Description:
This protein is of the alpha/beta class. The protein is 41% helix and 14% strand.
Amino acid sequence: MWYVNFKKTRCKSCYACARVCPVNAIKFKNEQAQILKDRCIVCNECSKACPQKNSILKSEVSKIKFFLKNKNKVAVSIAPSFVSIFGENSHKIPTALKKLGFTYVEETVIATNPVLEQYNHYADLDDGENYFTSFCPTINNLIEKHFPQFTKNLIPVVSPFLCHTRLMKSKYHTDTKVVFIGPCLAKKDEGSTDVSVDAVITFAELQKWFKKENTNLDELEEGEFDVICKDRLLFPIVGQTTRVINDKNPVKKVITVEGVKDCMDILHALEEGRFTNTIFEMSACIHSCLNGSGLDNHKTTYQEREINVRNYRQKCKIKYKDFDDRYPYEDYLDKTPLGKIFTPKKVELKVPNDDELYSILKSMGKTTLKDELNCGGCGYKTCRDHAIAIYNTISEINMCSPYMRQKAENIANLIFESSPFLIGLVDKEMNILEFNSNAKQFFDIKDDDYIGYPMFMYVDDAAFYDCLNNYKNIYNNIVPIEDMNKTLSQDIFWLHDEEIFMWMAYDITEKIENKKHADQVKQDTMELAQTVINKQMTVVQEIGRLLGETTAETKVILSRVKNLINEDNSSDNLRNP
Length: 577
């Protein structure tokens, strides 16, 4: 696997990783984030941005444990920034590492001077060229993969890390396994192609290893590194390389740049020829190695970590003041190659023609230049860059936030406007936020001045208070609009998360009028039946016994008609209008 990847089961397609990646090295396929190795510079910004903590970091701890279990001699080079993490327990690290089983324990900083000598050589060249220090592997990746025209400007020397591991292989023989422990995830990438490195882990991995082995630094005695170093101990602090080079009064200017964004800005400026005869000390991480991509530093500030480094240096100056200053690797320098060849590795994207580009932009709702907001929400600098990425199948239309928001709004508006109901949104102060077209037509509203008006100006708001205070939605509530001689049946819903009411109503005025008409017809019929009965009774009185039984039957029939009308009327009164 690559040095960092994502778990398939936990990716929520939130695009947070894609939006922070400075080189657009993340694609989405089947709603799953994937790292494009050809573009990745191993800065680890994606892991830090992931809200699901979904990243998987490639670990070689098990590989090291295998070396130790097989009784291999294992030498470890530990980067000087370890002091920033372990603080007052830093002098106990040699003891802790040897307790884990390491045979030799040394500080990487011992190999700084041979590299600085090469930097000083290039700083004294009066050739008008610009050069970059090559100790930061993320910056080396950035230049090789994304600014290949400047590959020739990387000073062709290994970093102190590789300088030290090569020297250790020479000193302890090639059958000794050499492990590097540092603050940077990209060191795994740098070490993977060098034969002097057998494994790389970060300080965060080392801390987890200590915890698993129940190694409590507070309970250990201080120990000594196998090679004593009292020089360059401030090297992890940003700008120290610049300071050391400037101490030699070089021909070239020396400038410190930290953070991928600022480094990219410098590289773009160099493309325009705005710098000459300059050495750039570039660090991908702000605050350089004291804020490395492999640090679990959320519990301490940068200032605290810098204080730890300075305190350690002061203690070493006192502790080793009488120590022999002879360089311990003097005898191995001549037979240890320190050169490094940097090569262009950029993978060019396919470029769509104008019609293809326009088609992609149109599919994102961008038909004019005004529509191209270039907001950067997708992680790309411009909408056209994003369209090119879509053309190369390394991005998706859905990553365009304005497009997705507009799409959602269009669907919501379609529902809102096409509904046959009167619909409104009302805030918790009972003020109107919005009416749909049907509602505005019903209330004869011609413009948007109604927004912010109290709801009671149009509809009695008693039911709204009932909904809010009694924590219940209101259904089929009949409300008369007296000044309009209209009647509505309304439903009211309280949307808790949004803290607004959704009001839906329909006009039942015609239905009620029809019912009133039907009721009147029934009433008239009933009265007519009563009149007939009364007349029949009069006839009965006049003709007496002659029509006795027939008259009685007529009265019974007409009484039944009257009762049926009354029953039907009573039943209707029970129904909801």
